[in-house]
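Suppose you are handed a protein chain with no further information: no name, no annotation, nothing but its sequence. What can you learn? This example shows the usual starting point.
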Amino acid sequence: MSAKPKMPSPEIYRIIVQEATMAILVVKSDGGFMYANQLARDLFELPFEADIAKYRVEQLFPTSTSDKRSKTLSGDILELQGLIQEILVRKINGQNFFATIGIKHVEIEGDKILLLMVQDVTRQKKLQREITEKQSAIHQAYQELLHQNKQLKDLDVAKNRFIATTTHELRTPLSAIVASAEILKLKLYDTTEQLDEFAEMIYNQGQHMLDLVNDILDFAKIQANRMDYFIEQRDLKTLVKNAVEGLAVMAEAASVSISFVEPAFDTHCYYDDLRMRQIAANIINNAIKYNHAGGRVEVFFVQNGAMIEMHVIDTGPGIAESDREKIFNEFETLGKIANHSKGTGLGMPISQRMIRAMGGDIYFNSTVGVGTEFWITVPKEKILADENYRSRPDSTGDLAA
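A reasonable first move is to predict its three-dimensional structure. Written in structure tokens, the prediction is:
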């Protein structure tokens, strides 16, 4: 017969448990600690020389936590058996940590014993959370990149449409100028009246072409952040009244009545006179241009706290909901090129940039089939940096710039 294998001594089992790479706690049925291996003492910060029996399992239950989504060690959980992952446990010093706990209920010589095998996973959970956050950030960045890519594609299409529109607009007056100049050069006119008509044609088309080029140059200066502003306190009523009077001939030619309501309050505010004339003329011009025969344009002021508002109401066709975002888009124009009113379509985007640079803003309301109301706000007090408030050196200085 073969010899019966020799059983390992209890000391061997003690050494194995003591040197295990997992914290092991043995708890008596009354909740008191019976045994803790070296790793358990280190993990729960139990003093090495302390009597293990004076500690109780309830001291491992977290008293409070800001993370309401986490499971916490409790008496109910200790009634279970098996492996519980990512559960919040408390050290003897009160600090919480995340752990994976194996729970085993055993009975030795009639005594019920609770065996806890604990592994600290706080670092792994933190790394996992950081990885999840980074993955979320990467996903968000990717979605944003897709969105920006779509915007760039849309912008590219809009720019191509803008270039086509602008080229069409520049070619029209240029063709008229060249044709009229050729007639004059070849003296293909019969009367002095015809001569005057062709001269007038060249002048008018040249002015229109100058307006187009000025729009493009202003836009380029704004895009390059090279637009200069010379803001002073002036009477806005006088400027707007002059703009209305200057466009009265255009309104009459379009069979549109235009009225200006004199304000009953002081309209002195801070703005750049040259830029404000551009803005006011553009808004009133649009109200006439996008109107109908027999329509009306009304210009008036409203006092609103620290702002003076200039309102322009027309009885035109109104702006459809789908077109409203295009009003201040530099590369969008309402309608197709064939139906496009004379101009680059930059008037409103330029006006918005300029009025905001002066401390104000531009708004509009519109009802299809009824009309549109645009208004700008202009500050009555100085609200910008001091360097913006200065006098324009001379009438040609800005053009030379």
